[in-house]
Design goal:
The complex is a heterodimer of chains A (138) and B (174). Chain A has 138 residues and is mostly helical. In chain A, 56% of the residues are buried. In chain A, α2 packs antiparallel against α4. Chain B is an all-alpha fold and 174 residues long. Chain B has 6 helices and no strands. The longest helix of chain B is centred in the last third of the chain and has 28 residues. The N terminus of chain B is likely disordered. Classes of the chains: A mainly alpha (138), B mainly alpha (174). At the A-B interface, α1, α3 and α4 of A face α1, α2, α4, α5 and α6 of B.
């Protein structure tokens, strides 16, 4: 068990939720619907991770008041790019958590990894052989 | 979104703000395991893990063969499918298995399927990728070796990405 990895994934979920808020304003109606589903899933994951941190005896990290964006998000294209990027980054954080947990906590982490990878692709991210690794294993 | 999509790694290197923001709230962790990402040539010491690995290898081989068949049947999908097939081959390598030998075209007709046939081909691959993703998730949870667990979870994530790509119209595939 690693409370550090759980906190990092939780912080990643907070950041991802922020990104969805920013991106949402630039999306078309149909896309916004999809983003809302993402938002709901990420909120649930955030709560699960907070529960995990508590179960491991920690105080869950909260969101930052704001996050610096890697580039201006001013249209649908940049909104997609932001979401693909944060989802990819989130998958990496879940990868750490997969390796540090077992049992149901690992299931939570592996599910989070797969969901984030999938969402990265949904928002236009390039397919990857090894999402959840910063440096691919091969 | 036309601008060339940078690979995530490049992004991470270049990324200032947002990723820094992420790191900021996780204590001093640019060391979150980020820098030493444990290349797992999976260590099949426990027997159970060897079984999981063997099952994953068989599964990935079957997927590789499905891509090879689809490529033979539908050369017009080559650009799209080859990129995914290459990633499937990388899964095999990471699991410590040699590439599957692609089945020879043999006598199976090289009749190029029309639009509907292509859609069916893509749909079948998509279903196979999703099924594989589900099994890798279960295998990841069951693995003893945490490195193997991460690898299996990652391969499952890749399967999910492939399934998304296969749902998108080929013309917009990026």
């Amino acid at each position: 068990m690693s409370i550090v990895a759980a906190q990092a994934a939780l912080a990643g979920e907070h950041a991802t939720l922020y990104a969805y808020g920013v991106a949402g304003a630039q999306l078309t109606d149909g896309e916004r619907e999809r983003a809302l589903q993402g938002l709901t899933a990420h909120r649930a994951a955030r709560d699960d991770l907070a529960g995990l941190v508590r179960a491991e005896g920690g105080e869950p990290v909260g969101p930052l008041p704001g996050y610096a964006l890697p580039f201006p998000v001013e249209d649908a294209a940049t909104a997609h790019r932001l979401l693909a990027r944060v989802e990819g980054r989130l998958a990496d954080l879940y990868g750490d958590l997969v390796a540090s947990e077992s049992g149901s906590s690992r299931r939570l982490a592996a599910t989070g990894l797969a969901a984030a990878a999938e969402q990265a692709a949904v928002w236009g991210g390039r397919s990857e052989a090894f999402p959840g690794f910063v440096e691919p294993p091969t | 979104m036309q601008p060339a999509r940078p690979t995530r790694r490049r992004v991470l290197v270049a990324a200032g703000g947002f990723v820094a923001g992420l790191a900021a709230c996780t204590t001093t962790s640019s060391t979150l395991g980020r820098s030493t990402p444990t290349p797992p040539a999976p260590d099949p010491s426990p027997d159970a893990d060897a079984g999981l690995t063997a099952r994953a290898v068989a599964d990935v081989r079957a997927l590789a063969a499905a891509y090879a068949r689809a490529l033979t049947a539908a050369p017009s999908l080559a650009t799209e499918l080859r990129a995914l097939a290459v990633e499937v081959d990388r899964h095999l390598t990471a699991l410590g298995a040699p590439f599957a030998t692609p089945p020879t075209a043999g006598s199976t007709a090289t009749r190029t399927p029309g639009g509907a046939g292509l859609a069916v081909l893509r749909r079948r691959l998509q279903v196979a990728e999703r099924a594989a993703a589900g099994r890798r998730l279960a295998d990841s949870v069951a693995a003893e070796d945490p490195r193997l667990a991460r690898l299996l979870a990652s391969i499952g994530g890749s399967n999910r990405m492939h399934a998304v790509v296969l749902t998108q119209p080929p013309a917009t595939h990026r």
